[in-house]
Structure prediction request, 194 residues.
Amino acid sequence: MVSLLLFVILILDFAMSLWNAYSSGYNIALLNRTAGSSWLRAVAYSGVGLAFAGMAYVMSVVLSAGAYYLGYVSQDVVSTVVAFAFLVFGALIIGFGLMVTIQSIALAMRQRSIWNILIALWNSFAEIWDIAVYVESFGDAVSILRGERSEDEGADVVIIIIVALLIAFFLTYSVYKHGQKKATSSANPNAFSY
Prediction:
């Protein structure tokens, strides 16, 4: 049951990261065509950061679990990669997510549609949940990172993190560029999705 829940969460995180990259690319392209505020630009770029951090987290977990399943790395390597990803990418997700959440609440208050209100509620719930889980699990993750590991295990951790970062970068960048391209060909220059 726990592994099914983890799988569902990873799929949702992956999908949301792709959407964040696409919508941020779309919005940044629209902002470049219009006189958008500095705040909207900051939110749009926060969306890109949120997409990259989420994608890097997912890729770290998937790559380390896959390497373990195939017998290339030990359980300690998986624990270390997941702890590192949780601490670093989790902090980035909370930081960038806060900007996006504030904007979604402001939009819901300004344009009181059901869709905007639901998005603001979801973003608020997700932000509070992320902070609570981060605070609760911070000490455990730090303890795992402080644990002893061999040189080979340390090298495996670094390789998995680097590969996860590269995959996350290329996926995020590709989808971001696709969003920009879509906005550039859009007939409506004011169709912000934020």
The chain has one domain: 38-183. The chain has a mean pLDDT of 90. The chain is about 85% helix and 0% strand.
